[in-house]
Amino acid sequence: MFVDMPLDQLRGYLPERPEPSDFDAFWDRTLTEARKHELNAVFTPYESGLAVADVYDVTYAGYGGHQVRGWLLVPRGASGPVPCVVEYIGYGGGRGLPIDWLLWPSFGRAVFVMDSRGQGAGWRRGDTADPEPGTGPQTPGVMTKGIGDPAGYYYRRLYTDAVRAVEAARSHPAVDAGRIAVAGTSQGGGTALAVSALVPDLSCALINVPFMCHIRHAVQITDEYPYAELAAYCRAFKDRVEEVFTTLSYVDGLNFAVRAATPALFSVALRDGVTPPSTVFAAHNHYAGPKEIRVYPFNGHEGGESAHAMEEAAFLRTHLGL
């Protein structure tokens, strides 16, 4: 069934944003602290058996100087530095294996895949620990990890890792540092949205059915996971509800959207109960940069699948070349 308001209302939906007064200072301080650690990006050649790409097993320093893992795939035989798509992963997944990431190299572009710290045991394996324990009790998953304090919250670390992933990708000589896109689906889409605001000189962003947008509204209208983790926590800690949503306001995609100037392609599916359409349209409608959105009326959280990948490929041709 269609899970949200009618499409004509969604296109004009522009809700108020729960923005903390120190939002910019919080993220400026966070990234300044992260950059006190040397990036230490290491690209180790990896024998993948693939004929179409040279593969590197990547490590670099993310939040707190913690080691983050990734993959870099560069089209084999490229004559010079090539554009690069920095890819972020959906909730519960990890970087997997190089064979999982052949789409963008098949179009002649490099792809840098960031592993998600502390995830990758749900549906595609990950290899990056989250050394920061957060504080206090938490539900399964990472949605409530450290949620009592914005400074200790999990997504502060993940989004910082994501900014540093762009810096790591740019450091490799096979990558054209001036032609970088960020991309992702669900949690990865929400991460790409955050980075589109935190890194001002990107070429474009592919923001596919993004998670972590209009968060309080999402928790109120869907029972689906991962938002259900927040509802479960609030059910147990009835006296901490406002504290929870104050922390979440520092990572809400709406507050990144109004700060973004990066050209962006969004997607939304009208039968999506995981990232309800009103949460996606709220982010899109608040987005300050040049933007387009593709609507898939009869799809759920899978979004536009291969058809949307072709839309993304066309968008990249416009903004990255090739």
UniProtKB/TrEMBL annotation:
Region (Disordered): 121-142
Residue stretches making up the Acetyl xylan esterase domain: 2-317
Source organism: Planomonospora corallina
Protein name as catalogued: Acetylxylan esterase
Transmembrane segments: none
Record Pfam families: AXE1
UniProt-listed SUPFAM superfamilies: alpha/beta-Hydrolases
Alphabetical list of InterPro entries matching this protein: AB_hydrolase_fold, AXE1_dom, CE7
